[in-house]
Every structure is written in C-alpha cells, then in structure tokens.
Specification:
heterodimer, A: about 140 residues, alpha+beta, five-stranded mixed beta barrel, two-stranded antiparallel sheet, 2 helices, 7 strands, about 15% helix, B: about 400 residues, alpha/beta, Peroxisomal Thiolase, Chain A, domain 1, ten-stranded mixed sheet, two-stranded antiparallel ribbon, 13 helices, globular, binds zinc ion
Chain lengths: ~140, ~400
C-alpha cells in the first residue's frame, strides 16, 4: 500500500506543479532547503515561484532558507496517510519567510508553541523527499 | 443591487444523509423541481440555471449543467456551472442573481449539490486508480507543496487554527464545546438534519477524547450528501405572485491571496470574511445588530466561533461565551444556524451555501415551522472556500409591504 500511495503522491505533485516545483524537490533530495528571491525587491515567497508575487519581476534566484524557526502550531493525525501514526504535523514560522507546513519529528507531548525547531529531510522513497522539523530546546 | 431588485421566490432542499443510493442526477433534478413548485411558478418560466459540479469528489463533470438542462426539458437563456470549493454554491447563486440583474433572465434557478463517495474503490476500480483519485483530489487542493504531507481531509489545518485561536484570543475547549452543543440543539428542531434527535451535552464534550488535537470528533462536521436549490426572480415576476418575496439587500465577496491555508499571515484571522461582511453590510445599509438570523459556514466548532467574530457579531474571543449564554439561539440576540449548521445539519460542501439560502428563505418567509425565529426580518448567509481564504456574504430581507 505504501508503494501505491507514494506513486500516487509523486504523480499528483507533478500534475499540480508550477515552474518552481521540480527544482524545489530536487534540492530537498540533495539536502537543501530552498526558495526563490526576487533580485529587484528582495522578497522571498514560500512556496518558491519563478516570478516575484510582490513586484512582478521575473528576475529571481534560488537561495537557501534558514533552517531554524519557531513552532507556530501543531497537531497530529492518528489515521495517517503517508507517515506512521501518530503523524505529527506543524506549521513552522521562519524569520522573514512566513509559515511552512511540515512533518514534525517528535511526539506531540514534547511540543509547545514558540519552541525553536530545526529542519532536516525525510526520504519518502527514491522519487520524493520532504522536510521535517524537530525541537532543539 | 442599486437599480435592480432581486428576489428569492422559492427554495427546496433534500434530506441530508451520509450516502445516497440513487443517481446524483436524480437528486439534482428533484431538488430543482421542488424549488420551482415551492415558488409556485410555471416550470417553463425558468430561463436560467446555474449549478455546482455534482460532487467535489468526481473527476469528469464536463457539461453536467447542459445535460441537466436537457433532462429537465426547459429552454434556457443562460446556464453555468461554478466551482470554487465551499463557495461553489454561493457562486451559482451569484450567477443567478447577476443574470436576473442584467436582464438576461427573468427567473433563474440555482442548485448546489454534493455527494460523498464511499471510502473504497468503486465497482471495477483498481486500488491504484482509487488511491490516485483520492490523493490527486487532496494534492490539487493543498498544492504541490503542502500536498506532500499526507493530509486527507483538511482537519489538521483547522485544528491548528483552533489551537492558535485558543492561544491568542483566550478561547477555551469549553467555548468550542458550546458552539457544537447549540448547533445540535438547533438540529434537534430540524427533521432534515443529519444529527436530528441525537443529544449532545457539555458532559459528552468534556468526556470526549481529542480526535485531531485540540478538536474532538463532535467539534468537526461530517462531509455528507445533499442538495439545495433556490429560485431567483426579478421584481416584476416576484410581485406578480401571491407570496412574500425575500429581497436581496447586500452582497460582499473577498479573497485573500492564499490558497488553502493562509500561512503567510495568521491562521486564526480571516481578512476575507471581515472584508466581505463589511461590503455586504455597507450595501445593505444595516448593522450587525439588525440581523435576526444567520447561517454561517463554520465547518468546525472553533471556525464557527472565529467566523462570528470576523463577521462582527461578537468581539474577538467572545463568541464562546455568547454561545454558552444563549445569545446565538432562540430568545437571544441573533439565531445563528437554526438549521443545525455544518456540524449538525451535515456538510455536503458544494451544496452547503444553498442549504443556508434555503434556511434563510424559510425563516424570512415564516415557514420554518418548529424552528421558526419569531419575526425574522433580516437574514445573513455566509460561504467560504479554502480555509476561509475566500468568503461570500449576502443579506436578505422579508418584504414588508
Ligand atoms: Zn520583487
């Protein structure tokens, strides 16, 4: 079943991609956490985009994002579709970037709003790597 | 709405059930016919038809509205199918209003319909095809980025919004519980509701374990099957009938530039709801206190509370107390969700705004039977898409002639 779910997910991500999606996931596979930055106004959107949603410029560059943030919110699903239950999910606030939905690599009992959390990767299968955060305090 | 008076002259809804056995086509057709009969007009006087897709879960719904028009055997001057998640039925309603306001149609029917599919492969469908359909559906909604994190229904997003609401505004799980309880009390007056005759007490809520923290199962709506339809007419047609028209007073609509989860900002605040409410109230030239009855699209108990605050019925963080003290029910300041709301009426997402329109119409007509809000004169209905990223609010008034 995991293989079927993983294949469907990979296809669905590809089907719903925009111009930046492939680069973003390839960078994750290489252990890099990236988005795009506008070279005209310095705005960094997340998710990445091949243009700047603030000023409209297409002059963008890929940059590495900060790998530490604060835990903004969290919950867990007991009927997890992709990850083992209980599947802890959170929104992490990255400085100057905004909130990012992520897998959280820690039991929910150890979490609190405002905790400092750190980024690393989670390999789903050879085709797909996602990110996860864990508390470091 | 300044130059054209728009009336709602008829409405119908189906019972709300988890699944249906009959074809969705028959449910759609019957609900439309029921609304036309309720309006007391000749079915061939209908010249506009706007609908939602037959289900948010279906893939191939091309030209559904054309086939429905053919099936009904009615010549039309305008037909459309509108889709944007939870706002779909509000957009179908808006389409009907616009076609009548533009003079393209005299009488337009708007239909919202949605069907829950069984959580298993359809006959003849492989498990691979079934998973593909299910996962494509969620990734399409949550985007190719958030979609990778294994979310099925969007409950975790709303749970985190509830957590932030409690963290920032001081709301408690008891506040959330009272939203669920009041809606259940209303559903117990409504035989069409999914949770009719099923008691829910504060003890039940206190004893319940977390489903997706901090939400308990009874803090969540169930995605189910149902349909609603309303008939919109111009002033000439509405005034020619021997019934009381319900007039459109104001409409507001807004979309925050975010897709499913507004993660750029604050997930317990909904600027699109506030903006659409301000537009609607300004156009209607009435105040929040003037509203007698409202149907809001609160799919979770915490969302119900936050929505009431963004619309402006209560200050931030104070809705829970208002629900507990009975301000949102019969004998209070305003009756919110006399239908039972999303939590206890049941929530066929694509159809929900039309079920709200049905309820507001029946209330303003004085035809809501045991759940009638006494002397209801002004009603508000609210719809949203995404996680309240976009919002549509309209205000309707009983004819006082
Ligand atoms: Zn820029």
């Amino acid at each position: 079943m995991k293989a079927i779910i993983d294949s469907s997910t990979v296809r669905a991500i590809k089907f719903n991609s925009d111009g930046a999606t492939k680069h973003y996931y390839n960078a994750l596979k290489e252990g890099r956490f990236q988005s795009t930055q506008c070279q005209q106004c310095n705005h960094i959107p997340f998710p990445p985009r091949m243009f700047c949603p603030q000023c409209g410029s297409t002059d963008i560059q890929w940059i590495d994002l900060p790998k530490q943030g604060t835990l903004y919110a969290f919950t867990q699903q007991s009927r997890a579709l992709r990850f083992n239950a209980p599947d802890v999910i959170g929104l992490v606030s990255l400085p100057d970037i905004g909130m990012i939905l992520t897998k959280i690599d820690a039991p929910i009992e150890q979490l609190s709003i405002g905790q400092t959390v750190e980024w690393n990767t989670f390999k789903v299968d050879d085709r797909l790597t996602v990110h996860q955060f864990h508390p470091i305090t | 709405m300044k130059n054209h008076k728009i009336a709602m002259i008829g409405a119908a809804m189906s019972p709300i059930t988890k699944y249906i056995e009959e074809p969705i086509f028959d449910l759609a057709r019957r609900t439309i016919e029921d609304a036309i009969v309720d309006a007391g007009i000749d079915r061939h006087s209908v010249d506009g038809l706007s609908i939602t897709p037959p289900s948010l879960a279906y893939h191939n719904t091309a030209m559904f509205v054309s086939r429905l028009g053919e099936h009904l055997g009615i010549s039309l001057k305008s037909l459309a199918c509108t889709e944007n998640g939870g706002c779909s039925a509000a957009l179908a309603l808006r389409w009907a209003i616009m076609e009548v306001a533009l003079g393209q149609c005299d009488v337009a029917v708007a239909l919202g319909v949605d069907q829950r599919l069984k959580e298993m492969p359809a006959p003849g469908e492989t498990i691979e095809a079934f998973m593909d359909r299910s996962i494509h559906g969620t990734v399409a909604v949550y985007s190719s980025y958030d979609g990778a994190y294994g979310l099925g229904p969007p409950i975790p997003y709303y749970a985190m919004a509830a957590q932030r609401y409690m963290h920032e505004a001081g709301a408690t799980k008891e506040d959330l519980a009272w939203a669920a309880i009041r809606l259940r009390e209303h559903a117990n007056k409504n035989p069409a509701a999914m949770f009719h005759n099923k008691a829910l007490t504060i003890e039940d809520m206190n004893e319940a374990t977390d489903f997706i923290p901090p939400l308990r199962l009874s803090d969540c709506s169930q995605f189910v099957t149902g349909a609603g339809a309303v008939v919109i007419a111009n002033e000439r047609v509405a005034s020619s009938l021997n019934t009381t028209p319900v007039w459109l007073r104001g409409w507001g609509q807004s979309h925050h530039p975010s897709a499913f989860c507004n993660s750029s900002d604050n997930i317990s605040r909904y600027p699109a709801v506030e903006a659409s409410a301000n537009q609607a109230f300004e156009q209607a030239n009435v105040t929040r206190q003037d509203i007698d009855v409202a149907e809001v699209y609160g799919v979770f108990s915490a969302t119900e509370l936050m929505l009431c605050e963004e619309i402006g019925f209560f200050p931030r963080g104070k809705s829970g107390v208002a629900f507990k003290e009975g301000k949102t029910t019969y004998g209070g300041d305003i009756v919110i969700d006399p239908s039972g709301g999303r939590l206890s009426l049941g929530h066929p997402a694509c159809a929900t705004p039309m079920l709200e329109a049905y309820e507001i119409f029946k209330q303003l007509r004085g035809e809501a039977e045991t759940r009638q809000v006494p002397n209801a004169k002004l009603g508000l209905l609210h719809a949203e898409h995404g996680m309240l990223n976009g919002s549509a609010i309209s205000i309707w008034e009983r004819d006082n002639a």
